[in-house]
Sequence to fold (424 residues):
Amino acid sequence: MEHRNDQSGAGNRRSKGGSRFGYFLSSLVGLVVGALLVALILPRVGWMDGGGSSAASQQPQAVQEQAESDTVGTAGAPNEETADPASLTLAEGADVPAVVERVGDAVVGITNIQSRQQNGLFGIPQSTEDVPAGTGSGVIYKKEGDLAYIVTNNHVVAGANQLEITLADGTNVQGKLVGTDIWTDLAVVTMEASAADTVIEFGDSSALKAGQPVIAIGNPLGLEFAGSVTTGVISGLERIVPVDVNGDQQPDFQSEAIQTDAAINPGNSGGALLDATGKLIGINSMKISTETVEGIGLAIPIDYAIPIIEQLEANGEVHRATMGATLADLASIRSAYRAELGLPQNLESGVIVDRVLDNSAASRGGLRSLDVITAADGQPIESTQQLRQYLFTEKQVGDDLRLTIYRDGSETELTLSLTDNLQI
Fold:
């Protein structure tokens, strides 16, 4: 009986296997016939629908739907995510290797060579020798006559007795410092024009948008990594960066900067920040580096740099409007001393005049020591940094400056005719 049941089970299994085979065979035949019908009918349907001979109309349905959804913006249906050239990735918007090959040689290395004193026995000075004090980057932006002009950072060339320019092929040539500006951290250097094969073109930093792709070229960590290329995007525009020019750990000025996540490291200073077409849009200057911060590089916008570069070329210095007085923050003065000045109790910020220079705008306009400046041209002034920022960015030599001041406890106004800072 058990054996009979086994036979029956085996027979059933064979019967089911045969059914599956028949079902498979009939399905296969159906698929072949269906495919032939589709191949014959679909071209006619496409022609009747006016689809022409486009590849999309001959695609299987699932693929065609995907293609249509990818091109909704150009097919007439609403699409809020239409592409903007500034939003393209570098892979879509630019051939990075081609850009680097075309303009990369305009980025050079700059070695700051300074004299160091050598001491002999018992620390007695014996001799001096010239030694490299640091390296940075620079960008060749112009050839004129026998000279090629390089823009870099002031801190790259500060204190140098000599400058050595390292070209992309490793050749070293002599550089000559034309001028520097400590406030904007910019400098101009020249070298022989015959050594410069590539000159970069200035771009337009005012047209930049957040998210726009950028390329950074420089020499991070020294000339061993010369010509390093990194890519990223514009992370932010018009970033205000405090600048300490005298090393007292207090901000003396505020500089405008482009923020990027393209890697910028020591040695990149003075290098090029390029747009996707290879035009110079910024001079790499610094990075914010802490344990909790990653990917914040800063560059001086080229539109901000060009007027400084032009003045450095022409004068070796930057002419700025100045008052001709040494100043201090009122907030740094002890409250007891402020009371002796006869100031209102609610006046906690402003700028106190320490000393008025002879033959200056301040002396001619009647400004005195211990005057407290609270406004310039009607705009409240709370610190020396704010007043300096206003003078450097809003005023020209020869402009009038209307100051609101407190003197001997009374508020009054003075008007100064601003002079050149280099003429004091």
